[in-house]
Amino acid sequence: MKNNKSIILGIALIIIVCIITVGCGFYNLLDAKDFKEHFGALGYTISDSETPKYEADTYLVATKEDVPYKIEYYEFEDELAAKKVYKKYFDSISDYITTDSKNKETTGAVLSKTVAVSDNEYIIISRVKNTLIFIASTKDYKSEIDNLLEDIKY
């Protein structure tokens, strides 16, 4: 009986380690409907008529009158397309930054996230599977943006 408990405990431990290592369960794949509902409930105006910087299956923009940034949401056919656009945004960070920036990139099996902080700007590029969120703002809104992304696990 003790032998069976040890085996079950060992298997459970292996599964937990695999989940933590791969990053499963620590992200939230937000589809277009969820994006609209979540940010609409927070008072943002959601637009699907703006022209995206990069080609995507779905492109939505959330804006609010009292904040100087917009939340750009991309949804792609597959994860490879999302990775390519993530890389394009990453390579063009200098287009959004006026001074040198400190960039922190986090990558995992299903996600990639870059946070770029300069003297004035605060930029987030966050990809989960086949979706991507891009926000270019000022450092004044850092905590608000971090809270928004933490709520949706991006």
Kindly describe this structure.
It contains four helices and seven strands, in the order ααβββαββββα. The protein has 154 residues and is of the alpha+beta class. The protein is globular, with a radius of gyration of 18 Å. Mean pLDDT is 88; it is low at 20-25.
Helix content: 25-40%
Total strand segments:
7
| Element pattern in H and E | HHEEEHEEEEH
Strand content: 25-35%
Over the alpha carbons, how many angstroms does the gyration radius reach? 18 Å
Largest sheet: 7 strands, antiparallel
Terminal residue distance: 43 Å
Shape: globular
Mean of residue pLDDT values: 88
Give me the number of helical elements. 4
**Main β-sheet, spatial strand arrangement:** 1-2-3-7-6-5-4
Structural class category:
alpha+beta
- Which regions contain 5 or more consecutive residues with pLDDT less than 50? 20-25
Structure characteristics:
154 residues; alpha+beta
Which helices and strands occur, and which strands form pairs?
Blueprint: H1 2-22, H2 32-41, E1 45-47, E2 58-63, E3 70-75, H3 79-91, E4 101-107, E5 111-118, E6 121-128, E7 131-138, H4 142-152
Antiparallel strand pairs: 1-2, 2-3, 3-7, 4-5, 5-6, 6-7
Summarize the structure.
The chain has 154 residues and is α+β, with helices and mostly antiparallel strands. The chain is built from four helices and seven strands. The chain has a seven-stranded antiparallel beta sheet, with helices on both faces.
